[in-house]
Description:
Chain A is mainly beta. In chain A, 0% of the residues lie in helices and 51% in strands. Chain A contains no helices and eleven strands. In chain A, the strands form two sheets. In chain A, strands 2, 4, 5, 6, 9, 10 and 11 form a seven-stranded mixed beta sheet that branches. In chain A, strands 1-3-8-7 form a four-stranded antiparallel beta sheet, with no helix packed on it. Chain A starts with a strand and ends with a strand. Chain B starts with a strand and ends with a strand. In chain B, the strands form two sheets. In chain B, strands 2, 4, 5, 6, 9, 10 and 11 form a seven-stranded mixed beta sheet that branches. A four-stranded antiparallel beta sheet of chain B has the order 1-3-8-7, with no helix packed on it. Chain B has strands at 4-7, 10-13, 19-25, 33-38, 45-49, 53-54, 62-67, 70-75, 85-90, 97-98, 102-106. The model of chain B has no long low-confidence stretch (mean pLDDT 97). Chain B is mainly beta. In chain B, β9 and β10 form a beta hairpin. The interface between A and B is medium-sized, with 25 and 24 residues.
Amino acid sequence: EVQLVESGGGLVKPGGSLRLSCVASGIAFSTYTVTWVRQAPGKGLEWVSSISPSSNYLYYADSVKGRFTISRDNAKSSLYLQLNSLRAEDTAVYYCARARAGLRTPPDYWGQGTLVTVSS
Amino acid sequence: DIQMTQSPSTLSASVGDRVTITCRASQSISDWLAWFQQKPGKPPKLLIYKASSLEWGVPSRFSASGSGTEFTLTISSLQPDDFATYYCQQYDDSSWTFGQGTKVEIK
């Protein structure tokens, strides 16, 4: 069974930092592009960042470029998102998801999400 | 970035109704389009990929069509489990974008 489990969310002050993690099981993690998608409370889905299997290609939404950093550790089947210079508008549930076969395929498996709240 | 616009934003329907949701892209995305269903407190669930291909395990009452800039998702006979929010997503560009969502409510 494929499982993606996020962790690391919490309450942080504006300007603060947080590191999110996502551990995968049931898949050959090192062969997949993986991605972060977020959803602000009561709002729609927003793609945040994607990383290729060997970390050669990194992609970011304009809204987070320069503040967030995506990385992965294939030996640990883990995906990370470092969130710096956090703003109130970054408050959201952050989901990790697997792209079925590269970026030209949709995310087919999703974690349950971890909530990040940015507030003073 | 490619913008995705869904209509309507909210749809009120009854069990057994035929329901259609439209998604429009700001530029051609060929058939690099997916549809998702999301229920409160849950992650999105993939329904359709490549504009019209039904994901494994998804009921056949769901169908989709379109290419280029105009796409539709149809539920042929709405069931109680189908009341949810639906999103389209383009993956033609490395910067994925989602539509704003269509909430299907009980009439």
